[in-house]
Amino acid sequence: MTSWGVGPKFAIISLVLGLLLIFANYYFFPKLLLAFNEFMFWFGTGVVAFGFYLMFLATFQVHQAFNHGRLITGGIYAYIRNPVYAAWILFIVPGLFLALEFHS
Q1: How do residues 70-101 score in pLDDT, each as one tens digit?
Q2: Please, what is the end-to-end C-alpha distance for the chain in angstroms?
Q3: What domain count does the chain have?
Q4: Structural domain of residue 67, as residue ranges?
Q5: Is residue 2 part of a domain?
Q6: Measuring CA to CA, how many Å separate 22 from each of 29, 32, 84?
Q7: pLDDT by residue (tens digit) across 24-63?
Q8: Vertex 20: Cα angle to 14 and 22 (nearest 5)
Q9: What's residue 1's pLDDT?
Q10: Does the residue 1 lie in any domain?
Q11: How many angstroms separate the CA atoms of 84 and 97, rounded?
Q12: Contact, 85 vs 59, CB < 8 A?
């Protein structure tokens, strides 16, 4: 396995499935769409930005430790067991749904 692990595969699959879900919701269930809310758009954008920051910080720490043959026990890994997955599950995916502009 490379130093990237399964992260890129997970990210690509998540984005594709998320886009398919948005497409299905928009075209097959238009009555379920919400009206655009500017506060939720900016809040969701902020959540996504924080998620990407967390993901890149964790990825940078992993690559530095991997290149030096060390185990990460500090930084963000001292607080979250797997911050790359946590970023996707807790911030990026929910943030994308909050930030999407829906019109009914």
Answers
A1: 888 888 888 988 888 888 888 887 887 777 76
A2: 46
A3: 1
A4: 7-99
A5: no
A6: 10, 11, 23
A7: 877 887 776 667 778 888 888 888 889 889 888 988 888 8
A8: 100
A9: 56
A10: no
A11: 19
A12: no
